[in-house]
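Support request, please re-run this one:
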Amino acid sequence: MPEQENDALQVIFPATDTESAVCRATLEQLARHLGIDESAVIHRALHRLAAQFGIVNSPAYESDDGPLTDAQFEQIRQAAGEQKLGRRISSLIR
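Re-run finished. Output below.
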């Protein structure tokens, strides 16, 4: 983990959410929902905003070849063989 600098910023929250700001209760809800602390929520939101404007770059991943074809799905089914794991509730493969 990178060494943290003591470069704090005071944030004053409005009493209620507005078009351009969120109240502290909303920040707390986001933190609980994401399972991270409030500082991490703020950093994540700021990074996303900076990436949207091209100020920072998010990691780029090489493009894949797109969706699988029916023939590729059939090859996967054949390679997997008969599955005896119990009742299937849903499937990721068509």
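The mean pLDDT is 85. The chain has three helices and no strands.
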